[in-house]
């Protein structure tokens, strides 16, 4: 059996709860653009799609901001609190 036909599997880490997970940098960018630059969620979504060829919903952006407020993570705390 060739290496190309083999299938590798592993367990999903417990902290991964959705199909798509965004790290701290995309979250920080979204929070910064929305709270500091005062750009509406729809325009942030459009901007991310143009710059990174990745579509992200306005609901996802709102959830990122909400989680950042709750977690008060370093760097983001100064922006949203």
Write up what this structure looks like.
InterPro entries: Transposase_IS66_central. The chain is built from 4 helices and no strands. The termini are far apart. Helix 2 crosses helix 3. By secondary structure, it is mainly α. The longest helix is centred in the last third of the chain and has 14 residues, at 58-71. The mean pLDDT is 83. It has one domain. The chain has helices at residues 24-36, 41-52, 58-71, 77-80.
Task: Detail the topology: elements first, then pairings.
Blueprint: H1 24-36, H2 41-52, H3 58-71, H4 77-80
InterPro entries: Transposase_IS66_central
Protein name: Mobile element protein
Pfam families: DDE_Tnp_IS66
Shape: elongated
**Main sheet makeup:** none
Helix segment count? 4
| H-E string | HHHH
Question: Which structural class fits the helix and strand makeup?
Answer: mainly alpha
**Which percent range describes the beta-strand content?**
under 5%
Helix fraction, binned, reads 40-55%
Which parts are unreliable, with pLDDT below 50 for 5 consecutive residues or more? none
Mean pLDDT: 83
């Amino acid at each position: 059996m060739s290496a190309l036909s083999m299938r590798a599997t592993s367990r999903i880490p417990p902290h991964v709860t959705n199909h798509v997970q965004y790290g701290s940098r995309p979250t920080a960018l979204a929070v910064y653009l929305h709270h500091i630059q005062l750009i509406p969620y729809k325009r942030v979504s459009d901007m991310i799609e143009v710059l990174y060829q990745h579509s992200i919903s306005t609901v996802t952006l709102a959830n990122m901001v909400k989680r950042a407020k709750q977690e008060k993570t370093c760097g983001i705390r100064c922006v949203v609190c």
